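Fold it.
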Amino acid sequence: MSNGPDRTIDDGPFARWRPFGDDREVIVRRGERMGFDYGLEQSRRTVTVGGVERELVRYQAFLSPPPLGPGQPPLCPSAAKRFTPESEVLRLPDAEFLIRREPDGFSDDEVELILECLGGQG
């Protein structure tokens, strides 16, 4: 992560990083904030970060939607997807990086750019 204007919050064990200058954030946990339960594991893939092979794990979280009021229609599929977001997590020895994928997250190409940035931190 750079120290430039793309970082939004960094309080030591927790940071939010905006790698592309928009509202999407990569959540970074360090120290006692590591080991978070990210939801149901969907898949794993091997990526290279800084010349070292690491696992990038895809998770699906399950959030509770607000209760429907009388006569309210059920959520449309795109709105319902917000309550089952998918993210990928990269675990390094000193940090965990949560990268939102669906909905409204980072594309495959953007994830590759994020991983390249992380690899250049050495």
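The two ends are 11 Å apart (CA to CA).
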